[in-house]
Each structure stands twice: as structure tokens, then as C-alpha cells.
Amino acid sequence: MKIFITILLILILALSLSFALDESAMLLHDKAFERAMVAFGLAKGLNAVISLIQGTELSFAPVGIGLNFSIGEVLDPFNDMVERFSWVMLAASISLGVQKLLLVLSSKIFLQVVFTVSIGVSLIFIWMKKLHNSSFFVFSMKILLLLIVLRFGAILSVYTSELLYDEVLYEEYEASSAVLEKTKSNLDNIHTKNKNIMNSKKESAWYQLDVTSKYNDIKEQLNLSAKLEAISQSIEDASRKIITLITIFVIQSIVMPLLFLWFFIVSIKLIFRIKLENERVALFLK
């Protein structure tokens, strides 16, 4: 048993001293942070374009009948959801920032040195029978377990979160992001076309006498109103996808870190609550 524990501790030490594990975890974390920032930017972009066109009315009078289409009435509920989505993404980004700080701290040289010294002391106690009955032996083993949690806890959290994303959340994230991108593009088109119509009215001195301009104006506004009707379904789909994205980032960026924090606290409590008798430890190491 002593040989097995010795080999295990040496492997753990080698894994700790290898910065490849830390670099890999950092890359995975950066990908998750980038996804959060892209989603946050998308939310702010949607909010910006909605704010630009929210008060716009499409007004025209074919055959003398005045018609109005208020884009704001359609987009107002959607804009409220987008604003809430942006707040969730901001919270997710902050949470990921805290995780990165923990990753950086876990790879610091100070912790590495303390971890190495702790394993060295534990190996000395394991192989020297005279020290098995020392009360400091049990204490040193508890400190070692605590350092293992500190050293690899954040890394384990990142790998677990990324595995969950790759296996469960990836397809939903890609599909939802694509729908929101398409919705933003459609809203941008509506804003651009309506702005062009308003500018053409202001710039054309002969607009009131130009029958062709009026006809083109009415035709373009009819196209815009038709596009508005078409985008209503798109907005409904986008609302569902926003809920999906909120769920994804709440799970990956808030729930998972909270589970890690719970695991960390429970692990510390268990480590220091475990009562190890020196005689049983000595018998176990024989």
C-alpha cells in the first residue's frame, strides 16, 4: 500500500508541476469567456438597433387611406427580454472572470512550492514507521488533501463545465446564436430602408410634385410593412432562443461555479472533520 500511495503522490506532483494542464484549462476558460462576450455583444447590438427603430412609424396613404405601422409596439416586449439577457450575460462574464482569477492563483509558484513540500513531508511520514504514531502525521495528510483541492479544484471545474458544454449545450448555443444574428440583421435592414425613405423625402425638393417618388415611397413602405409582419415570427423565435441562451450561460457560468464552491467548502469540512487514529493509519500503510 505504501508503494501505491507513493506512486500516486508522485504522479499528482508531476501533474501539478506540469504547466500543460494549467495552459489547457486556461484555453478552455478563454473559449467560454469569449462565448459569453460574443453573446453579450450580440445582446447589446440588438438593444442598440431596437432603440434606433423603436419609435419609428411606417406611414403611407395608398388610395387616400392613411395607414400606420408602429415598429415599437412589436419590438417593445422583445427589447425588454434583450435587456434582461444582457444583464445575465454581464453576470456570466463576471463569474467567468472570477474563475480565471482562481485558475491563475492555483498555478502560482507559491502554491506549487507549498504543494511540493507537503508531498515530500507526507512521503517521509509514510516511509518512516517511527513517525506513524505522530499526531503531526495525520495533520500533514489533511493539509495535503486540502492543497490537492486548492491546486486542482478550479481546473476540474473548468474541464467539467467545458465537457458539459461540448456534450450537451454546444448545438443549442450555435443554433440560438444564429437565430439572434439573423434577427439583428433583419432589424438592421428595416432601420436602413426606413432611414433611406426619410432622407429621400428631405433631400428631394420636388418630392411633393414627383408622382414617381411617391409611388416608390409607397411601394418601399409596403415592402417594409410586409417585412415587419414577416419578422414578427422571427422575433418570437428569437425570444425563445434568448431563453435558451440564458439557460446555457446560467448553467455553465453560474450554476457550475456555485457547485464547485459548494464542493470546495464541503471538501474542506470533510477533510478537517475526519478523525484518523494513528494506529489505524499505521495498519493501513503496512
Explain what you see:
By secondary structure, the chain is mostly helical. It has one domain. Helices cover 86% and strands 3% of the residues. It contains seven helices and two strands; from the N terminus they run ααββααααα. The chain has helices spanning 2-17, 19-53, 71-106, 109-127, 135-203, 211-273, 278-284; strands spanning 57-60, 67-70. The chain has a two-stranded antiparallel ribbon with strand order 1-2. α1 (2-17) packs antiparallel against α4, α2 runs antiparallel to α3 and α4 packs antiparallel against α5 (135-203). The chain is elongated, with a radius of gyration of 31 Å. Mean pLDDT is 75; it is low at 59-68 and 205-212.
Keywords for this structure?
2 strands, 286 residues, two-stranded antiparallel ribbon, mainly alpha, elongated, single chain
Compact summary:
The protein has 286 residues and is mainly α.
Itemize the secondary structure elements and their pairings.
Elements (H helix, E strand, L loop, with lengths): L1 H16 L1 H35 L3 E4 L6 E4 H36 L2 H19 L7 H69 L7 H63 L4 H7 L2
Antiparallel strand pairs: 1-2
Structure classification? mainly alpha
What is the tally of beta strands?
2
**Main sheet: strands, sense, barrel:** 2 strands, antiparallel
Strand arrangement, major sheet: 1-2
Q: What is the CA-CA span between the terminal residues?
A: 7 Å
Radius of gyration: 31 Å
Q: Tell me, what's the shape?
A: elongated
Helix content: over 70%
**Overall number of structural domains:** 1
Total helix count?
Answer: 7
Low-confidence stretches: 59-68, 205-212
Order of helices and strands: HHEEHHHHH
Fraction in beta strands: under 5%
Average residue pLDDT: 75
